[in-house]
Design goal:
Blueprint (H helix, E strand, L loop, with lengths): L3 H5 L3 H14 L5 H12 L5 H13 L4 H24 L4 E2 L2 E2 L1 H27 L3 H25 L6 H26 L4 H25 L13 H4 L5 H8 L3 H13 L4 H13 L2 H16 L10 H15 L3
Helix pairs in contact: 2-5, 4-5, 4-8, 4-15, 5-6, 5-7, 5-8, 7-8, 8-9, 9-14, 9-15, 11-13, 11-14
């Protein structure tokens, strides 16, 4: 499997440039804000979202100044939603670092999220990037709806597969879809191509989320056993939904009861993990993930072969085959 650095190679120069521009986009005359945004930049993840933007732009026409703004807009709005999510989830950690709300409290975290959101909107309106703004704002709407739909359904823990897919289509896939659509739009692509790239990103985004679901049941390299975090948080993920739908009523009731009332008991959580594993829940979810990936990749067939297209395909494979 290609490494992420190898995949990124064709756009490494653009990614370095993007890095500088992104840092610049968060500047503020308020020193507290500057301190917090510096902390945000320092603990960034793999930056897979901007990679989708740049590969998509290159593949359909080429990177422009608008492409950089598309990447910045998506990263600003995405970072804002993560900061707000940590407040909503009362989470003290993100990617092994303290969350903003853990270090500076909820009130400041919410305001920082608002600031990042406004920065994204301003960059777009000042440059009249209205098509990008339309795509990304719609993604933020879908993400909020997905999150609320999940909260609404989690109360009863009776999520069926179609509802699960609806939640992750909005909550996770909409952002990857908007990366691909914005990349295409920034390169001057037609609405038909933008729509095709959106569809590609949406399918890939669903596959990514299923991969995340599977991680919860796989042995963590650090502790040598599954984490079960989704179970502790009472999230109904695809492996669990499948297992519950393919068991007898008494077992179903018992497992739902554990998730509802004993989700903080490590032994009980392990019982749920064992139940899912023994019910072929992991195999089923993995099969679904590869189905979405297989549906997505042919959408790129109409684009000419290039190092960017190859890297985009490898990026998709990397994120669905990764072990961490």
């Amino acid at each position: 499997m290609s490494t992420l650095d190898h995949i990124k190679a064709p756009i490494s120069r653009e990614m370095d440039e993007f890095e500088k521009k992104f840092r610049q986009s968060m500047k503020s005359s308020v020193s507290l804000l500057d301190k917090i945004t510096h902390y945000i930049v320092k603990r960034k993840g793999k930056q897979i979202r901007p990679m989708f933007v740049f590969f998509s732009a290159h593949m359909v026409g080429g990177v422009t100044d608008t492409t950089y703004r598309a990447g910045i807009l998506i990263e600003l709005l995405h970072t804002a939603t993560l900061v707000h999510d940590d407040v909503v989830d009362d989470s003290n950690e993100r990617r092994g670092f303290f969350s903003i709300n853990a270090l500076w409290k909820n009130k400041i975290a919410v305001l920082v999220g608002d600031f990042l959101l406004s920065k994204g909107l301003l960059i777009s309106t000042q440059n009249k990037d209205f098509r990008l703004l339309e795509i990304v704002t719609d993604a933020v709407r879908l993400m909020s709806e997905g999150e609320l739909l999940q909260i609404e359904k989690a109360r009863r823990l009776d999520i069926e597969e179609p509802i699960y897919f609806e939640i992750i289509r909005r909550k996770t896939a909409s952002l990857i879809a908007s990366c691909c659509a914005c990349g295409a739009a920034s390169a001057g692509a037609s609405e038909e191509v933008i729509s095709k790239m959106y569809s590609f990103g949406e399918k890939i985004g669903i596959a990514f989320q299923i991969k995340d679901d599977l991680f919860d049941y796989e042995n963590s390299s650090l502790i040598g056993k599954p984490t079960g975090i989704d179970i502790k948080e009472q999230k109904m993920t695809l492996p669990l939904i499948y297992a519950l739908n393919n068991t007898d009523r008494a077992t179903r009731r018992k497992i739902i009861n554990i998730v509802k009332h004993n989700n903080n008991d490590p032994k009980k959580v392990e019982e749920v993990i064992a139940f899912v594993r023994n019910s072929q829940g992991l195999q089923y979810a993995e099969q679904k993930m590869y189905e979405y990936r297989s549906d997505a990749l042919p959408l790129l067939d109409s684009f000419p072969d290039s190092e960017y297209k190859t890297s985009l395909i490898n990026l998709v494979k990397f994120t669905t085959d990764r072990k961490f």
